[in-house]
Design a protein that fits this description.
With 367 residues, the chain is mainly α. It folds into three domains: 44 residues, no CATH class; 106 residues, no CATH class; 168 residues, Orthogonal Bundle (hpI Integrase, Chain A), CATH 1.10.443. A three-stranded antiparallel β-sheet has the order 1-2-3, with helices on one face. A three-stranded antiparallel β-sheet has the order 6-7-8, with no helix packed on it. Strands 4-5 form a two-stranded antiparallel sheet. Strand 6 and strand 7 form a beta hairpin. Helix 2 packs antiparallel against helix 3 and helix 6 packs across helix 11. The chain is elongated.
Amino acid sequence: MGNIYKRGKIWYIDVRVKGRRIRKRVGSSKRIAELALRDAEVQAAREEFGFSKTDITLDKFFELFLEYSGASHRPNTTDRYSAVINHFINFLKEYPDITFISEVNSEHIDRYKIYRKSCLVNGNGQVVKTPELATENSRRGVRAYTINFELDALRLLFNQAIKWGYIKENPTKWAKRLKVDDAKPPRFLTVEECQKLLETCPKELHPVYFTFLNTGMRKSELMNLQWKDVDLKRRRIMIRFKENWQPKSGERDIPINDNLFEILGSLDKRRTKKSQDAYVFNVKQSSPSRNWLRDQLIKIAKEAGIEGLTKLHTLRHTFASHLVMNGVDLPTVKKLMGHSDIQTTMIYAHLAPDHLEKAVDKLNYGN
């Protein structure tokens, strides 16, 4: 029913169960390999060899999961899961014998972390397929916080496989998160760079990027903003659940400052459709591609001579960073940004190194 074999200094077991070939790495001891084979044969006979009766191929499971995610999560979330799955599939090319989901074990997860730490990636974290395509911004290794996110994603995927009855144990169970000591501080624009950006903007895009900078809204929040969400009397923008869209971290209100009030008031007066369901910015309907706003931002930044501005999210970081540098406390920034966890807001704490001292100085118990 099975046998053991050796590759280099490592012994493996090789068994067949219902026509399927299962191979497992054991270690350097032949005796232990023999015992492992005997145990595997017993488990296989009892149909307890780490896979359930409804075992499934990885390709099919990933297909089913993305279908499930598409119906259950926001499109951006599904895209992130899809990217993690693609990275994991590329990693598994080193293990051509792995076909079924039950064949993935904790060792593979640990080796996946090593694989991601050794990948050649560009400045945005995308894998460089061949060394010839590397640029001066390419680096060796994905950042620790990205690998931790991917581990969390894989954990969720395999938990779903357990719920569906495809496996009995999650192979990520013993995987430890990496210590994050290589994270770069978020890029934000200086006041001068903000002015350059807005001065260089085409007339039709100026209100869009101005709103990003003055509200810290996420891309999806701005693209789904309707006039019924804008209260010019109370000077509030309301991020609200919609029938076909929901905010990432719940509902919130964002105050409208004086400059933004003028911009939005002008747009309101000029709009031809007075329907409250109309979108404030028509980019969702008129954009030729999903990344059109980002592509335009990169183009404008290049023309304005602003280096390193390649993401819309940088405008959100700019909003939060300047709030903190102007003395706004972190809990307030958390609320304005719509962060679900204060730890996310803490990435801006270094911009206010004296806020703790100022807080303590407010105490006055007398001499």
